[in-house]
Amino acid sequence: MADTTSTGTFSAEEKRAMRARAKELKAAADQASNAAANVEAIAKLPDDERELAERIRDMVVGAAPQLDPKTYYGFPAWAREGKVICFFKPKSKFKVRYSTFEFDTAASLDDGAVWATAFAVHNEMTDEDVAMLAALVTKAAG
C-alpha cells in the first residue's frame, strides 16, 4: 500500500482500492442474498411445484453452472452478469393449468426469425425433455 500523507489521510490509490473492495464485498453480499432468495422461492412452493422447481434448478445448474441464482418477480431465476437468462414460473402464482420454464431477452437463443422462449413443464417430464431444456439453457447462457 502507498504511504499515507503526514496529515493521516489516505492516498488516492488507497481510496480507490478501498472503494473497489467495498464494491466487491457488496457484490458478494448481493450474490449470496440473491441465491438465498432463489432457494426460498423454491422452498415456498406447494409440494408438486417444489419438486418440479428443484428438478429445473438441478438441470440449470448442471447445464450452466456459471449462471447466478436469483429471483425474478418472485420466481426462481438464473442470471448472467445480473441479467435474467431463464426462470421457473409456477402455476400456483397465477392459478393456471401448468408451470412454465422461460427464457428472458438476455438469453442467446436467436434462431432465424422464430424461436421458442417458454415451455410448459410438468412433473412427468422425461429425461429427454430435461436434456432438451438443458441444451437450450447451455445455449442461452452463452
Structure characterization notes:
47% of the residues lie in helices and 19% in strands. It is built from four helices and five strands; from the N terminus they run ααβββαββα. It has helices at residues 12-43, 47-63, 91-94, 127-140, and strands spanning 68-72, 75-80, 83-89, 99-103, 118-121. A hairpin with a 2-residue loop joins strand 1 and strand 2. Helix 2 crosses helix 4 (127-140). 25% of the residues are buried.
Secondary-structure-derived class: alpha+beta
- Tally the structural domains: 1
| CATH-defined fold name | Aspartate Aminotransferase, domain 1
CATH architectural group: Alpha-Beta Complex
Q: Outline, from the CA principal axes?
A: elongated
Question: Number of helix segments?
Answer: 4
Largest beta-sheet details: 5 strands, antiparallel
| H/E series | HHEEEHEEH
Percentage of helical residues? 40-55%
Report strand order across the widest sheet: 1-2-3-4-5
- Spans of at least 5 consecutive residues whose pLDDT stays below 50 are none
Radius of gyration: 20 Å
Strand content: 15-25%
Q: Overall mean pLDDT score?
A: 90
Quaternary form? single chain
The count of DSSP E runs of length 2 or more, i.e. the number of strands, is: 5
Terminal-residue CA separation: 38 Å
Structural descriptors:
YdhG-like domain-containing protein; coiled coil; Aspartate Aminotransferase, domain 1; alpha+beta; 47% helix; elongated
Q: Helices, strands, pairings?
A:
Layout: H1 12-43, H2 47-63, E1 68-72, E2 75-80, E3 83-89, H3 91-94, E4 99-103, E5 118-121, H4 127-140
Antiparallel strand pairs: 1-2, 2-3, 3-4, 4-5
